[in-house]
């Protein structure tokens, strides 16, 4: 129950042991092309989508290499660890960074962003979709509007597949993501969707690049036998193929609704335990729930205790929140009972840490939300057919 890497469905796990195919064959090109097409569907874009064998950080670096020249000025919006990391990353490539910093967990101030974006000479604006360090899901549509007409880059590492993202409708120029969070695949693949405007700026970019060269990737993608320019992680692509087919068999809208449902249960359970939410109690926050722990309860010790005693993995937070904030991930191959189990484990961990907590308070609050959702507020029709539920019941997953 961490925000990533997340559990994988049995069929995704099994795909790892399929025979390794030559990526230059037409048979494998069919798999590769299907993955790219399904990534487009997931991102809700008609733009080019390039797939890389790397962590997401590699694709982040590649985005900077392909869009900018030494000394270019960029605007970076941050309200957590990963926004701040983009500033360090851009500076490492010799870019001139203007930051609009917010307190960790604070919603984006679109007025401040618009004022900063109006400064002359800026080449692009960068923001994080789901700031995994705090559980905050940022208003990307508002960010794009506030930064117009600047080119926009969005890091959607833990947002893709869990939180609403409409790349084309919102006008996002570049979205960068990966496979190990809501896309239910082991780590090692990253991707970027690239708009026509971004390709035009890429044509002027002069930062050195080789492995992550977008031109090389697009040329290979458009070859008679579509592929990547370099040897890909063949087994991981086969696993991602299965995961994406499961997502679209369930229905992307239904998948997003399921994550909304899980977020409601998690937040209600946290409040039921008497804890404070670190991020707002809003449906947008559907990938991870962050809770402030009471004084005297250390988040790192609580995470360790719950793992040792109950074999359930939760996440603490990074500095400056280290020790103070607990994070419950609920994206990907997760259902209601996973969230309820996590709430029960947190309750037991709090009690063992000496913090008074009413027995069953978190689970009861979560179940109350579930009753309401199943009774009258039921936009989540497909939850009964989610991959986690089907696997738990021993039914075949599409």
Furnish the topology, listing elements before pairings.
Elements: H1 10-15, H2 26-43, E1 48-53, H3 56-67, E2 73-78, H4 81-92, E3 96-101, H5 110-117, E4 122-128, E5 130-131, E6 136-137, H6 140-147, E7 151-155, H7 167-170, E8 174-178, E9 189-194, H8 196-202, H9 214-221, H10 234-250, H11 252-272, E10 276-277, E11 288-292, H12 299-310, E12 325-329, H13 336-352, H14 361-375, H15 387-392
Parallel strand pairs: 2-3, 2-4, 4-7, 7-8
Antiparallel strand pairs: 1-9, 5-6, 8-9, 10-11, 11-12
Helix pairs in contact: 2-10, 5-6, 11-13, 11-14, 12-13, 13-14
Spell out the CATH superfamily of the largest domain: Type I PLP-dependent aspartate aminotransferase-like (Major domain)
User: What's the rounded overall pLDDT mean?
Assistant: 94
Poorly predicted parts? 378-384
Q: Please name the CATH architecture of the largest domain.
A: 3-Layer(aba) Sandwich
For this structure, the CATH topology of the largest domain is Aspartate Aminotransferase, domain 2
Domain module tally: 2
Structure characterization notes:
The structure is a single chain. With 398 residues, the protein is an alpha/beta fold. The chain contains 15 helices and 12 strands. It has helices spanning 10-15, 26-43, 56-67, 81-92, 110-117, 140-147, 167-170, 196-202, 214-221, 234-250, 252-272, 299-310, 336-352, 361-375, 387-392, and strands at residues 48-53, 73-78, 96-101, 122-128, 130-131, 136-137, 151-155, 174-178, 189-194, 276-277, 288-292, 325-329. It folds into 2 domains: 10-249, Aspartate Aminotransferase, domain 2, CATH 3.40.640; 251-392, Aspartate Aminotransferase, domain 1, CATH 3.90.1150.10. It is 43% helix and 14% strand. β5 and β6 form a beta hairpin. The model is unreliable at 378-384 (pLDDT under 50). A 7-stranded mixed β-sheet has the order 1-9-8-7-4-2-3, sandwiched between helices.
């Amino acid at each position: 129950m961490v925000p990533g890497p997340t559990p994988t469905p049995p069929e995704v796990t099994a795909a790892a042991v399929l025979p390794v195919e030559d990526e230059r064959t037409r048979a494998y090109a069919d798999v590769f092309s299907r993955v790219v097409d399904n990534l487009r569907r997931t991102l809700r874009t008609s733009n080019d989508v390039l797939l890389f064998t790397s962590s997401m950080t590699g694709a982040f670096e590649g985005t900077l290499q392909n869009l900018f020249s030494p000394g270019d000025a960029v605007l970076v919006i941050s309200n957590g660890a990963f926004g701040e990391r983009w500033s360090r990353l851009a500076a490492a490539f010799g870019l001139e960074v203007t930051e609009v910093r917010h307190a960790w967990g604070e919603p984006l101030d679109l007025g401040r962003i618009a004022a900063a974006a109006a400064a002359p000479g800026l080449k692009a604006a960068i923001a994080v979709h789901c700031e995994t360090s705090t559980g905050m899901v940022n208003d990307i549509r508002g960010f794009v509007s506030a930064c117009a007409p600047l080119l926009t880059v969005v890091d959607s590492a833990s947002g893709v597949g869990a939180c609403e993202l409409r790349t084309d409708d919102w006008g996002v120029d570049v979205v960068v993501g990966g496979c190990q969070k809501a896309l239910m695949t082991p780590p090692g693949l990253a991707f970027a969707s690239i708009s026509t405007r971004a390709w035009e700026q890429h044509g002027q970019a002069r930062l050195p690049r080789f492995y992550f060269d977008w031109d090389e990737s697009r040329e290979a993608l458009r070859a008679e036998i579509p592929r990547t320019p370099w040897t890909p992680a063949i087994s991981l692509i086969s696993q991602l193929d299965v995961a994406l087919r499961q997502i679209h068999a369930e229905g992307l809208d239904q998948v997003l609704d399921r994550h909304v449902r899980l977020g409601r249960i998690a937040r209600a359970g946290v409040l039921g335990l008497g804890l404070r939410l670190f991020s707002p109690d809003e449906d947008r926050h559907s990938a991870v729930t962050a809770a402030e722990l009471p004084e005297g309860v250390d988040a790192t010790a609580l995470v360790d205790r719950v793992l040792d005693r109950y074999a359930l993995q939760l996440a603490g937070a990074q500095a400056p929140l280290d020790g103070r904030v607990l994070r419950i991930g609920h994206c990907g191959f997760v259902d209601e009972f996973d969230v309820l189990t996590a709430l029960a484990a947190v309750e037991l961990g709090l009690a063992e840490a000496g913090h008074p907590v009413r027995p069953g308070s978190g689970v009861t609050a979560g179940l109350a939300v579930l009753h309401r959702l199943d009774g009258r507020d039921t936009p989540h029709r497909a939850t009964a057919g989610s991959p986690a539920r089907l696997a738990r019941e021993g039914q075949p997953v599409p």
